[in-house]
Amino acid sequence: MSRVPGKKGPVPGRAGEDDDICPVCKSSRYLNQNMKFLINPECYHKMCESCVDRIFSSGPAPCPVAGCGRTLRKQRFRKQILQDIRIEREVDIRRRVNAVFNRRQEEFETLRDYNNYLEEVEILIFNLINKTDVEETEKKIAAYAADHRSTISRNKALAHEESINITAEAEAQREQARIRRAEDLQEEEDERREREEGKRALVERLANSKGNADAIVQEIERAQVKRSSAKGEKANLERRKENAMATQDPFGVTNGSAGAGFKIAGLKKVVEPEIEKDYDPYGGTALEHEYYVFQDQYEHSWLDKARTNPEITTGGYDVGEYCARAMFEAFAGLGCFIEDELGARNVAVDSGTATAAAAMAAGR
Amino acid sequence: MTEDEIYRTSTQYRLWSFTPQTLASLRSTTNQLAVEGVKSAIQSKRAEARGEGGENGERANARSVSPEVDCLTVEEEQRLVGYYCLKTMEFANFCDFPTNVMATAVQYLKRFYLSNSPMTYHPKEMMPIAVFFATKTENNYISLSKFAAKLNNTTTEQVIAPEFLLTQGLRFTFDVRHPQRGLEGGFMELLALASGKGQPAPGIEKSSMELQDEMVNVPPAEANKPQARTPGEVKSRIGSVHDKAKEILKTAALLSDAYFLYTPPQIWMSALLLVDEPLASFYLDTKIPKSSPMRSKLMITLRACMETLQSSPSARPGKDERAACTRIDKKLYKCRNPDKLDLVGMNQAQKRDGESKDGALDEKIVKKRKLERENSMKEGEDVFGPPLPKVANKQEPP
C-alpha cells in the first residue's frame, strides 16, 4: 500500500543481500536459515532475533547500532511488516496518533469541519514523521488524550464493534462460498457418474438388442441431453431462489454469491436511540406542599380498617393515596380569597355568560 | 405548583365562586328575567285563550298591558330552593346514598338555581335528576329504572326529562369540591399532632414533641370544661370535634351559600373554628404563623365564613318554616311559566322526530329513513364503497 516503488534495499543492484545480513552480528541467512529480523519502534534499527535475545534479555540496554545508543527493551521488539523502515515508522506513528484522534465523521456538523479536523491531525502526524516540533506535538497529543478520554474510549469501542461485525460478515461469506463450492463439486461428481452410467447403458443396449445401432445411440443421447438440461434448470432455479433470499436479507451478512455481494456505500449507521425517561404524566410539574408535610402513616380509626381488611387490600387499594388526596383537599384553596381575587372578574362574567345563560334558560 | 394554584384551575373556582355582591346581583337578574318570561308567557296564553278570532290590533293592545301576576321575590325563591335542597337531602338519605352524593346533588340544585328561577323550572322536577347526576359523578351509579322506582309516581322519562336543562344550568361542569374529605385530612393531622408525630407546615421550626406539649395545653373550648391533661384526652376531644364539624359540613355548609363564597378548606376550617376555637387556632398556628399578613387575612375570611354557616337555614325546619314554604309553593302555582310546565314534552320536542306529539311519526318519513338506511348498509358492504359523486364538468380553459 505505501510501498515506495523501486525501494528494495539501500543499494540497488545488490537487492536482497542487505536483507539477509544482521547489521549487528553480521550473520547471514546463508548461515542461519531461520533467521528473523526484528525492529524496535524506538529507533527502527534492524537486528536478528538472536541478537535481541543476546543483548536485551537481561533488561534494557542501549541500541548496539553505532551512533544510536537509545535504550531499548526486549518487549517492544517486533517483526518488521513493511519492507521500507521509514514507512514502517510512519505506520506506527499514524496508528498511535489515530488511536487518540479517533473522531468520526458523524460527530461533525459538516463535511468541511471533518476535513479540517483531519487536516489538523495530518499536520501533527507530519510533524512527528519529519521530527519537527516533536516535543510540542507530543504535548498536544497528550493534552488532547487527557481532555477527551471518554470520547476516545467510546469511539474505540464503536470501532471495535464495527470490526467485529466486519469479521463476522467476512466469515459468513466464506462459509457460504465453501458450501457453494461443495455443492458444485457434488454436482460435477453426479454429472460424471451419470455420463458413465449412460455410456454403460448404451453399450449394454447395443450388445443385447438387435435393432439399428445408430438409432439406439441417438435415442440414448437424446435422453441424456434431456436429463442434463432438466438438471441444469433445476440448479438454476435453486440458485435463483438462493439469490433472492440473500437479497432479502436486510443486513447482507449472508450475501455469498458474487452477484448479490454488493453493498450500498455510505449507509448511515443507525444511531442508538437514547434511553427514554420514565413517562411523566404531569410534564415535570410537581406538587409543592405549602401548608403541610405529607407523612407516610396517618392514624385514623377507619383507615386502620382499610389497611388490614383483606376485602379492601386485595383489590390493591392504597390507603396512602387516600391520605394524599385528603391532605391535598384539606388545603387546596386555603389561600384563595375569592372576594379579593374574583371581585373584579365576577362583574365582567356576570354581565356576560352567566346572565346570558340565565336569560336563555328563563325563556328566550 | 402549590395546592392553591391547583385549586385555582378547578371549575368550582373559575365558574362557581362569587363575591356576595355578584351572587346577589346574579340572583336578582335571574329573578327579573324569569318574571319577564313568566309575564309574557302568561299573556300570550291568555291572548290565545281569548280566541284566535280576535283582531290583530286588539291583541297587540292586550300585550302591551302587562298582566297582574304575583311573582316570587328573590328571597322567596331562595327559601323555596332551600326547602327543596332539604328534600333532596332527605331523599338521598332515604336511598342510602353516601354523603358526597347528597352534597353534590344539593350543590347541583343550588348552582342550577343561580341562573334559573323556580318560576321557570320547579325544583321538585329538578331534584330527581340532580340526585341522579350526583350518583354518577360521585361514582355511585344505580340504573335509571331502579332510581325511578324509589320515587313515587315518577317515570324514568320524568326523571330524565330535565337532564339537558340541568347540564346546561351547571354550565357543563359536574365537579364539586367538597370540604368533607379535607376535614378528614385535617383530623388525620390533628391526631398525628396529638400523638407526637405531627409536623408543622414547611417553614415553621417546631418539633413534634413541642407541638404535642402545646396541644395538651390548648385551653378548652368552653370555660367550664376541664383542661385536657394527656394526649389521650386530647384525642378524645378531637374525636368529638370531628363529629360536630362533620355535622356542620353535612347541613349548614350545604344549605348556605358557603360553597359559592369560600373554598373548601376555608369552609371546614371555619366549621372547626365554630366547634372548638382554641383547637382550631392552635392548628392554624402550625400552618401559618400569627405574624404573617396572610394569617390575619385568612382569619377575616374564616370569620365571615363562620357567620355564613351560622346564618344558614336550619336543617330541621320548624312548623312556621314549613308553612311558609307551603305558602310560597302555592304562590308559585299561580306564577309558573306556562311554557315550561311540560318538561317531558319539551325534552321530546328537542330530540329528533319530536315534532309530532302523539309519538307516531309520519309514515313517509319512516319509509324514507328506512330506504336511506338500507342504501347506506348496502354501500357499506360494497368492497369499493359507494360510487363517487358525479362532478359537474369543469369549464375548460379557453
From TrEMBL, chain A:
Pfam families named in the record: MAT1, zf-C3HC4_5
Residues of the RING-type domain: 22-65
Single GO MF descriptor: cyclin-dependent protein serine/threonine kinase activator activity
GO cellular component: transcription factor TFIIK complex
Keyword entries, A-Z: Coiled coil, Metal-binding, Nucleus, Zinc, Zinc-finger
Keyword ATP-binding: no
Domain of life: Eukaryota
Coiled coil: 165-247
GO annotation terms (biological process): nucleotide-excision repair; regulation of transcription by RNA polymerase II
Subcellular location: Nucleus
Statement: the UniProt record of this protein carries the keyword Zinc: yes
Protein name per its UniProtKB record: RNA polymerase II transcription factor B subunit 3
From TrEMBL, chain B:
Recorded coiled-coil stretches: none
Compositional bias segments (type: Basic and acidic residues): 350-381
Region annotation Disordered: where it falls in the sequence: 345-398
The organism of origin for this protein: Heterodermia speciosa
InterPro entries: Cyclin-like_sf, Cyclin/Ssn8, Cyclin_C_2
Record protein name field: Cyclin C-terminal domain-containing protein
Cyclin C-terminal domain ranges (all copies): 178-307
GO MF term set: cyclin-dependent protein serine/threonine kinase regulator activity
Keywords associated with the record: Cyclin
One GO biological process term: regulation of transcription by RNA polymerase II
PANTHER family per UniProt: CYCLIN (PTHR10026)
The keyword Transmembrane is annotated on this UniProt entry: no
SUPFAM superfamilies, per database record: Cyclin-like
